[in-house]
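Annex B. Sample input.
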Amino acid sequence: MRLGTIAYYADFILAPMLIAFLIWSAPLSATVTAVGAWLGWIAVGFVFWTVLEYVVHRFIYHHVPYFREIHDAHHADPNALIGAPPVVGLALIMLVFYVPLSGLGYTAASGFAIGGLLGYLGYMVLHHAAHHWDLKPGTWIFMARRHHALHHHASEEGNFGIVTSLWDHACGTAVPRSRAPKVRVLQS
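Annex B, continued. Sample output.
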């Protein structure tokens, strides 16, 4: 869905605010074990985000009619401000990441949700950078853009991961770099 500038950037601001709130409100004891467990839940939430991102992009955005049409609009005009309405993604993350773990306590639920929110924020920033920023060749973010450019321009479907290419390699959907399109490099 095409968004206005404010709607497009809203989650870039709201996601860090929600992360900050979950951190601030976490009733952590100052023990190494409690903090370690909470950080572990954050890591698990982040990894789960990468799997979810891959699965949604590969199987929903490319195969479910309503979502495929919206995603096709993004492929047709990659620089357009296309995305979910503000707060929808954040609400879904809280529903998928926080609610199921709330029975295990606030530490587990907040940590897992923070990991998912960090993944979502990483997804938004990396995807935006891939389409809108001039990036220095050889940098990690430039390589991430190149990976995503293959998703848009290769003759075969693949490279569904944005935050990481790990699941593309694990699932056999990584498009070989030999099929990479020429990425325009701007000289300063």
